[in-house]
Amino acid sequence: MGKENQTYLTEFILLGLSSDQHTQVLLFVVFLIIYLLTVSGNLLIIVLVNADSRLHTPMYFFLKNLSFADLCFSTSIVPQMLLHFLVMRKTISFARCSIQMVFFLVAAATESSLLAVMSYDRYVAVCKPLHYSTIMTQRSCVQLAVVSWVSGAFVCLVDATFTLCLPYQGRNVINHYFCEPPALLKLASTDTYKAEMALFSMGVVILLAHVSLILVSYYNILSTVLRMQSGEGRFKVFFTCGSHLTVVIFYYGSTIFTYMRPNSKKMNEGDKVISVFYSVITSMMNPFIYSLRNKDVKAAFRKAFGRQ
C-alpha cells in the first residue's frame, strides 16, 4: 500500500462539463459550431491582412497576432473537448496534459498582452492622431508584438513549472474539461501555497496591469470623443469602444475570477462555466467584434473573393 501511494500519476480523468449523455451530445454540437466559427473567423483575418495592402497598418498587424493567438488558444482545448463528449472514459496522459497546459498558457497570456497593446494603439490613434505615424512605426509594432509573445512564454514558464513540478499521487480525477493550473493544483499531494502565490503573482503582472492600461486608454479615448464636434464620429468611436470593452469584460473578468482568488479544494460547476468564457467564447468573438464588421475588412473580403 505504501509503495502504491508513492507512485506518481501517469494519466488523469477529466469530468468535463456534464455527465449526462444527452447533454453531452448537445454540447458537442454547440462547441463544434463555436470551434468552426473560431477557426474560420481567425483564419480569414490572417489571410485578409496578409493579402490586402490596405490592411497593412498597426491595428491589423496586432489583430493578425491576436487571431493567431486565438487559434492556438482554441485548438489547445476544444478538439479534446469534442472528443471527450463522444467517449465514455475521458482520460488524458500526464504528458498530453502538460503540453495542453503550455499551449493554453502561452496563448492566454499573449492574448492578454495583445489586448492591452491594441488599446494603446487605439489611444494613440484617437488622442494623438498627428503623432500616430511617428509613434506606431513598423519597428515599434514588431517590438510590441514580440514583447507580447515573450511575456506569454514567461508567464507559461512560471505557471507551468510551479504546477507541473508538484507531486501528483492518489486521486487522478480533474473536475474540469481541460488541464488548467487551478484545477490541477487541487489534486497535488503536497502543499500548494508556493504554486498558488506564483499563479497569483503572474495574474497581477499579466491581468491586473493590462486591465489598468486598457481602462486608462479607454478613459482617455472617451474623454477625447466627448470633446468631438461631429456627432457621427462620436457615435462611431463609442460603438467601437463599447464592443471592445465587451471583450475585455468577458475575457479579463472571467480570467481574474479564476486566477486571482484563493484556491479552494473543490471546483464547482459555476467555475467551469466561467472558464468557458475566456477559454472558448472570446476566441470566437474577437474576429467578429474587432474586424469582420469593419468596412476595410469587408472591402478586402470582396476583393479577395471576387465580389465587387
Give a brief description.
Helices cover 74% and strands 3% of the residues. The chain is mostly helical and 308 residues long.
Total discrete domains: 1
Specify Rg, calculated over alpha carbons. 21 Å
By CATH, the topology is: Rhopdopsin 7-helix transmembrane proteins
Number of DSSP helical runs: 12
Largest sheet: 3 strands, mixed
The span between the termini is 73 Å
Question: pLDDT average, as an integer?
Answer: 87
Strand content: under 5%
- Judging by the overall fold, what is the CATH architecture? Up-down Bundle
Classify the secondary structure makeup into a structural class. Answer: mainly alpha
Element pattern in H and E: HEHHHEHHHEHHHHH
Low-confidence stretches: 1-5
Give me the CATH superfamily.
Rhodopsin 7-helix transmembrane proteins
Tertiary shape: globular
The CATH class is Mainly Alpha
* Count of individual beta strands: 3
Helix fraction by DSSP (H/I, runs of at least 4) = over 70%
Q: Enumerate the strands of the largest sheet in spatial order, edge to edge or round the barrel.
A: 2-1-3
